[in-house]
Amino acid sequence: MREMLVVHREDDAFAVLVRDHVIHVDQPYSAGGADTGPTPVELFVASLAACAAHYARRYLTRHGLPATGLEVTAGFAMGPSVPARVSRVDLRLRPPARLSDAQVAGMMAAVERCTVHNSLLDPPRVGVSLESPVRAA
User: Fold this and answer.
1) Who is most buried in 3, 21, 41, 103, counting CB within 10 A?
2) What is the pLDDT along the chain (137 residues), one digit of tens a residue?
3) How many CB atoms lie within 10 A of CB 48?
4) 3-state secondary structure 59-99
5) Which are the contacts of 39, defined by CB distance < 8 A and separation ≥ 6?
6) pTM above 0.70, yes or no
């Protein structure tokens, strides 16, 4: 199983360590944070949009179509009920060149097979455990 580490920085700010990368996560000023990075929910939606963009780019490249300038916009809404959750995500793909109807269908089929999308359709089991704190020597 692959791992990443989330380390508390201060207040609502955390550092997410993924391989050799650091992603800063925080809450916006309006929610009491220092706005030093996106929220965890924004990263969740961003991962879906980035995965869709990856699959779209791969489709375009595989078919000899231009990919430079490809854009994916992600809109999302929070659910009105408890527990808090993202209730809707709308992805809008903007290829850098006009596509034929067949190419649109092919790119959409590729994007719908993205790993993050598949993980939402068939959600993973999530286990949570509590470990003993590290004791100072």
Assistant:
1) 103
2) 999 999 999 999 999 999 999 999 999 999 999 999 999 999 999 999 999 999 999 999 999 999 999 999 999 999 988 899 999 999 999 999 999 999 999 999 999 999 999 999 999 999 999 998 877 66
3) 22
4) HHHHCCCCCCCCEEEEEEEECCCCCCCEEEEEEEEECCCCC
5) 25, 26, 27, 28, 31
6) yes
